[in-house]
Design goal:
4-stranded mixed β-sheet; alpha+beta; 2 domains; 2-methylcitrate dehydratase PrpD; homodimer; 60s Ribosomal Protein L30, Chain: A
């Protein structure tokens, strides 16, 4: 499809309130065209390389969901919602509790994001799998589907989510929306709607229902409510598909209408990002997997500090001070000087650098309450300073170390491990999976689960994977008020 | 409390994206101060006149919820969610189906709004009771509460909802947000959080959770998804309170933070509307009750047309043409020239005028698919024209009638029946209640329900009212997929 003419995006002054809204007539039928593609595409239309990346996304997501299963955030969410669960068809991955599919979608969205260790579409900072895979697997336990169909729906959902994200990013994100929540609900609706075979009309309604539920504020970062966003996006997206299936109608122009999602939540609406090259340009294939359990903007710093640690060995204890030069966004998002909890530690480039230098750690273990308050860590942390430099790329960092003896060392990281330039290998994804999952369900169940996850496309029923994920957790589960 | 200094609302350029965001330091602790008031206030602190208006709000809401109970919108929503309901503690008013409290909150929010016949806070066009009462009554069936405590929580929730609405209206609404959904979730969280005795910290978290779920687009008007908004606001607000009760934490500055609700969803943030005169100025006492089952902006036209019909009698059939002069908003919201369904008819000032002139009708019966397509109605409808005049007040209209013989008649309505200037009497609320409810649960149950509703403050358990609302509907209920 050719790029849309600029006239499609012309703005007019609307009403008396200084709100600029695109006029009706000039905008293409974005929702309708996107829905045609979603409903028509077959698994065999998706290139092998794209399906391979989709599988990596799925494996990484399962590991993160199991890895986060016993976080306090999850315990509290479960305590609140268990009394309201319907027929317990679906698994909370890595835990003994089962819930109805809508609530399981919520919980798996929380568990997979709570350690900030999941996946990232780097163009938009969307964490794609949480909203989409959480909705789809919970649904697959209620309405059986094959691994092939599951993977097709997962890839389609993520494609939709990232394209809608592209169309409004960065203005939408800068305004304050947590784009994983707001774009995620469309991805979850698309994937689950595809899986249950919605008609095109129903799918358009599902998009209207998703648009009107798109929410999630960046203000919540650093609290339990951050991981609530992908969970709620999964649940709301599935709800959208189920309502549409029951012919609950809605706008058929949820994305592009004058008072639809894109206009109301962003000052940028580039619909060519949604409609151009559908089926040939694959945003879902650009997914990346976090090597470190925190916001993506800290990753270059952790990578660089781990490299420095490997180079200087014992001299780590002889560091006098450290200075970071980063893009302004890094300090805006992760500039907490004195974090007090593990969650706050994820939003402190200072803590992250100290933990990487002193412990070589960037895994969830680097972001526990204990680690954040360790005197050794806080001592070094307080000797780290940082400068925001707009000339520095968001994905780069320069780390200047001064030792007690006055000597200096400088390390520049152009692109961190885990980025698209330095992607995790399948073996690194395995190692990340095993490290997380073994702590929760034991090593044996972890290896069985990992093998089943890579074997997704051969499964006749994906629900099997959810069952395996529970492993030995029955005996490890904490009381959750249920 | 004195008005906040203008400096509190100073704006600064933020980041590189042209998004203006208020800075942190200059903004008062809006959420915290509001929460202090919510948690501390006692029922006896609320003036008698305010409690009286709260009771009228409750009675009107019950009638609307029962009245809308068998709408197709409700049937379809129930078909979708019934398979996911948890323990059926709570009533769908006017229907035999029972659901868990969260889903019952959703359904009662839909039923009470689906006929566009509910209540209106005219300053903001919020329909206050739907989100708040729906959440609170569903909760009261799970956790018993007295009528007095219920009324206190209801009034507090509506007060919060309307004040938050005031703080961002009209910019927020003009941008495209359905304010009943976006402000409603705060009201539902406040009311249910008050009822279950959240601590101040928990209530601040509940407000963070509400803020991050605030959603609902005006694009959905004219579809089933419009009434989904107050329903989802009720459900999400209750969910926010329940999560906070389980110590699921969140931002404690959900309303006013730089990337909190007010800044992200509006270009206006007047926090004095939220904080000034708490406990002395009562927005909840400004509630009004719709005499007609459609958008409030059409009410002056229907009122005027009914008056003309009363004055001219048989000469209605001799009308050649009609011209309306209205505020621009009336045509923007309700300018559909040729509606084809009952729902679309609610967004057509032309249909509404024709039905009022020919049938004297503005009740739900005026907005059925059949009525909208009646040749007699469409014939007159197509001879009605309208002009938008910015000089005309939103709540006024001028109706110019030309008869076949060339004679003319002009009617100006300054304020319509149902507005705060011409409020419905208790007897008119009774009549509206009976007309709606008797069709659904029969006259006997209706009279019992009406009496119980007015008797709210004497009830030891409000759940009784929900039980009475089911009446004879068991035998009238349609299949809903359950």
């Amino acid at each position: 499809m050719a790029a849309l003419p600029a006239a499609c995006f012309k703005k007019v002054k609307y009403m008396s309130s200084n709100v600029e809204i695109a006029t009706n007539a000039e905008v293409p039928n974005v929702t309708s065209q996107l829905v045609d593609w979603i409903v028509d595409i077959k698994g065999s239309d998706i290139p092998t390389e794209v399906r391979k990346e989709g599988l990596r996304t799925f494996v990484n997501w399962i590991g993160c969901a199991v890895g986060g299963a016993h976080h306090e955030t999850v315990d509290r969410a479960l305590a609140a919602v268990m009394p309201f669960s319907g027929t317990a068809t679906s698994t909370v991955l890595g835990r003994p509790e089962r819930l109805d599919a809508l609530h399981a979608a919520l919980l798996n969205g929380i568990t997979s994001h709570v350690l900030d260790y999941d996946d990232t579409h780097l163009k938009t900072i969307i964490h794609p799998a949480g909203p989409v895979a959480s909705a789809l697997l919970a649904l697959a336990e209620l309405r059986p589907m094959s691994g092939k169909d599951f993977l097709t729906a997962l890839i389609v959902g993520i494609e939709v989510e990232c394209r809608i994200g592209n169309s409004v990013y960065p203005n939408h994100y800068d305004r304050g929306w947590h784009i994983t929540g707001t774009a995620g609900v469309f991805g979850a609706a698309a994937a689950t709607g595809k899986a249950i075979g919605l008609s095109k009309q129903q799918m358009r309604w599902a998009f209207g229902l998703a648009a009107t539920q798109a929410s999630g504020l960046r203000e919540m970062f650093g609290t339990m409510t951050k991981s609530f966003h992908p969970g709620r996006a999964a649940q709301n997206g599935l709800m959208s598909a189920l309502l549409a299936e029951a012919n609950f109608d809605s706008s058929e122009r949820g994305i592009e209408a004058p008072r639809g999602f894109a206009n109301v939540t962003s000052t940028k609406q580039d619909y060519s990002e949604i409609l151009d090259d559908l089926g040939t340009r694959w945003e879902s294939a650009l997914n990346s997997y976090k090597p470190f359990a925190c916001g993506i903007v800290i990753h270059p710093t952790i990578d660089g500090c781990q490299q420095i640690r490997a180079e200087i060995g014992d001299r780590v204890s002889a560091i006098k001070s450290i200075h970071l030069t980063t893009h302004p966004l890094v300090l805006e998002l992760t500039g907490k000087k004195t974090p007090r909890t593990g969650l706050e530690g994820k939003f402190s480039v200072y803590h992250s650098a100290a933990a990487a230098l002193l412990k070589g750690d960037g895994a969830p273990t680097a972001f526990t309450d204990e680690m954040v308050n360790l005197p050794e860590i806080t001592g070094l942390r307080d000797r780290i300073t940082a400068t925001a430099d707009p000339e520095c790329h968001e994905a780069s960092v320069t780390i200047d170390v001064t030792f007690e003896d006055g000597s200096r060392l400088s390390k520049h990281v152009e692109r961190a491990i885990g980025s698209k330039d330095v992607p995790l290998t399948n073996e690194q994804i395995d190692a990340k999976f095993i490290t997380q999952s073994a702590l929760v369900i034991g090593e044996e169940a972890t290896r069985e689960l990992l093998a089943a996850a890579w074997n997704l496309e051969a499964l006749s029923s994906v629900a099997d994977i959810a069952g395996i994920s529970v492993g030995q957790s029955q005996t490890k589960a904490k009381a959750t008020g249920s």
